Amino acid sequence: MRITNLIFNNFWPKVISLALAAATWFYVFDLVNTDSFLQKKETMEDMLARYDFVVKDVPVKPVFTGRSPRGYRVAFEKVLVKPNNISVFGPEDMLQDVTELRTNKIDLGEYTRSTHLRLGISSDNKLLQIPDDAVDVYVPVVPVEASK
């Protein structure tokens, strides 16, 4: 008697819910199997053929912040970046706007003598893949009296 109560209690709402669920399933099944939703299999060669890929040498510029401590200055004309150019590879239309790569910021207030740093590099273009992720920078610091 209990099983029949479970089945026949609210029988018509259950039948209508089942019919709506089946109709929804068939609708979604048909929608997913149409050509507009099927993923087209594209080979790597097809994808790469859409773009003109180039290699471009881009200069690396050090980024300085802050001020040198009192009595010292950076001889900016003698700053060395190695390598000073990095070759990047990518679609030509993406690389045409890339004019330089920048180092991480160098806080001048930290240095009272010349130093060699290993710094990361970045670009405004976040999609750009940079093969070398760091450069060496030589920052020459001289006393103010010696530069006169």
Please outline what is shown here.
The protein has 148 residues and is an alpha+beta fold. The protein is built from 4 helices and 8 strands, in the order H-H-H-E-E-E-E-H-E-E-E-E.
Describe, in plain words, how this protein is organized in 3D.
With 148 residues, the chain is of the alpha+beta class. The chain folds into 2 domains: 2-32; 44-147, YbbR-like domain (RNA Polymerase Alpha Subunit, Chain A, domain 2), CATH 2.170.120.40. It is 26% helix and 34% strand. The protein has helices at residues 2-8, 11-32, 44-49, 92-95; strands spanning 53-65, 72-74, 80-82, 85-91, 101-107, 115-122, 134-139, 141-143. It has a 6-stranded mixed β-sheet. A two-stranded antiparallel ribbon has the order 2-8. The chain is elongated and about 105 Å long. 7% of the residues are buried. The model has no long low-confidence stretch (mean pLDDT 84).
List the keywords.
148 residues; alpha+beta; RNA Polymerase Alpha Subunit, Chain A, domain 2; 2 domains; 6-stranded mixed β-sheet; two-stranded antiparallel sheet; 4 helices; 8 strands; 26% helix; elongated
Outline the secondary-structure elements.
Elements: H1 2-8, H2 11-32, H3 44-49, E1 53-65, E2 72-74, E3 80-82, E4 85-91, H4 92-95, E5 101-107, E6 115-122, E7 134-139, E8 141-143
Parallel strand pairs: 1-5
Antiparallel strand pairs: 1-4, 2-8, 3-7, 5-6, 6-7
CATH level 3 topology of the largest domain: RNA Polymerase Alpha Subunit, Chain A, domain 2
Percent range of helical residues:
25-40%
Provide the domain count. 2
- Helix and strand sequence: HHHEEEEHEEEE
**In whole angstroms, how far apart are the ends?**
107 Å
Number of strands: 8
